[in-house]
Automatic annotation (TrEMBL):
EC number per UniProt: 1.4.4.2
Annotated Gene3D superfamilies: Type I PLP-dependent aspartate aminotransferase-like (Major domain) (3.40.640.10)
Protein name, per record: Glycine dehydrogenase [decarboxylating]
Lineage: superkingdom: Bacteria
Length: 254
């Protein structure tokens, strides 16, 4: 049978994609618990003081194409300006292969359930790729991207450096003064909780301090500067201090 293009288009609303109980299954479930209807069940178990007096005006159900068009129209009202702040948030060209397979992979956001495990699965795949690229670029034996943000990871790196440092009596942690301010804030808070002494100074001054159990460096710095840390890392390693530096992968490739 011949069909027109409009007939072949997916006209189903998003709400129809939810795989839930059928009307017959709902009726059986309600009978089992002794409820006459779904609204009656809600009236019996949900307190009135937390319920809206009327349903929100969300409009009629729409298709995927309509939803995407509306979302793009809303996003189109944003005014885009150049940001000169930096601080780790730099405008870069994302390769289409990464956009399509990770950030814009339909398999990660068109879930058939309201819990969207696919979104979690997509995030896990992105983290796995990030870890692998980190290993490839650094030559390290292991990499972990299990934390949600750079600041938290830096604070955890400080805590780990203290635990594994061979300088058991050392209680000082050095932080380069060009670390992103949001990272420094979290590290400072965690250091206070742990009782660590935090030293904040120019990166090259790290070798001037004694009894450091760790060093946190930024590459590149929050003001956009690139540093050659090779000599510094060799010296800090010779005195058994552990170094940590948040990765910005595209800058490692320069």
């Amino acid at each position: 049978m011949t069909r027109t293009l409009s007939q072949l288009e997916n006209q189903n609303e998003f709400i129809a994609r939810h795989i839930g109980p059928s009307p017959q299954q709902q009726e059986k479930m309600l009978q089992t618990i002794g409820a006459g209807s779904l609204p009656a069940l809600i009236d019996a178990i949900v307190p009135q003081d937390i319920r809206l007096p009327e349903l929100p005006a969300v409009g009629e159900a729409i298709t995927e194409q309509q939803a995407l068009a509306e979302l793009k129209a809303i996003a189109g009202r944003n005014k885009r300006f150049k940001s000169w702040i930096g601080m780790g948030y730099s405008a870069v060209i994302t390769p289409p292969v990464i956009l399509r397979n990770l950030l814009e992979n339909p398999g990660w956001y068109t879930a058939y359930t309201p819990y969207q495990p696919e979104v979690s699965q997509g995030r896990l795949e992105a983290l796995l790729n990030f870890q692998q690229v980190t290993l490839d670029l650094t030559g390290m034996d292991i990499a972990s991207a299990s934390l949600l943000d750079e600041a938290t990871a830096a604070a955890e790196a400080m805590a780990m450096a203290k635990r594994v440092s061979k300088l058991k009596n050392a209680n000082k942690f050095f932080v380069a003064d060009d670390v992103h301010p949001q990272t420094l804030d979290v590290v400072r808070t965690r250091a206070e909780t742990f009782g660590f002494e935090l030293i904040i100074d120019a990166a090259e001054k790290a070798v001037d301090h004694q009894d450091l159990f760790g060093v946190l460096l930024q590459y590149c710095g929050t003001r956009g500067h690139l540093h050659d840390y090779r000599i510094l890392l060799l010296r800090s390693g010779s005195v058994k201090s552990l170094s940590a530096w948040p990765p910005i992968l595209w800058r490692w490739c320069c």
